[in-house]
Amino acid sequence: MRRLYRLGGAVVILIAVFVGYTVWLAGEFKSIEPHFDGTCRSVEGIVGTEDITIHPQTGIAYISSEDRRATIAGTPTQGGIWSYDLNRAGAKPVNLTADIKFPFHPHGIGLWPIGDSGELMVVNHRRGGLEGAFEDTIEVFALEGSALRHIRTIRSDLLLSANDVVPSGGGRFYASIDHGNPSGILRTVEDYARLPLAHVVYYDTVRFRKFADGIRYANGINLSRDGTTLYVAGTTDRVIHVFTRTDINGFLLSNGQIETGTGVDNIEFDTDGTLWVGAHPKLLTFVGHSKDADKLSPSQVLHIDPTTGNSEEVFLSDGSDISASSVAAKFGRRLLIGAVFDAKFLDCELPG
After folding, report:
1. Is the pTM of this model over 0.85?
2. Chain mean position to CA 32
3. S-S: 328 plus which of 34, 63, 276, 307, CB 3.0-4.6 Å?
């Protein structure tokens, strides 16, 4: 009996250590001291501005929007891709996909610029949403002036649980697959046990291939301007994985990782090749926010030099101005900060 008590005590201690470590790793013990050297204004009216990318030539921002709380509640509404002109004072967002007839629930987006136009690729959770059964597709749009024209839908069983997408030219792309389990209890176990079951897939216009196994919650993904280096956010590992593209067939060679100490989300590039990353400094608080809008979730923006791995925390908020920041996209001195659930984004001016 005494041995049984000892065994039970050891199990309780192990569970307590595991829970404590998980809470610490999720950032719940961090002290949030809000700061930002610039100024921000809130742009209202778009729900769930989860991903934003800016055309480097035109200064037009493209914004992925989806009411995720409605989707979680089982009453999904049609999402959209919006444009926002950074060249116009007092610009208002414009819904570019209001006439789409198929179910449209955008998540991550990626832009391949071609002069003043280009292609926009969008992760679309066509049925259900975050927790139920769904079919993930990549929707491809052509940028034509101020409009988007839907070109095609790309499907594959390997796109199950797709999160973000980045084009690599000629209709090719990489997509992050954030879980090995699409839904249910196994997905929950995967999250809290931090199982490395996420990965990346590559589409070469003919077939899909699976690369970069062993990532914990693969989230934002982006490609360097010269096309040689792929960056993938590992949210629950609090790192950005770095991969070198070895040839035109899309093969990836691991080239280390950038430690961030926070729950990194989407990754955007500045014109100088540095990274701007939206992040969640308290991941369990973010989970609470996803279930209750009244529970604020801190927001964070990092500026990272990929050559040195040095990271600067540019923006930190307790969530009162914007909760659960998922992306930061920069153009000149303008910085747009989007969020997973809020019905707004921030248009900020960086200091000179």
Report:
1. yes
2. 22
3. 276
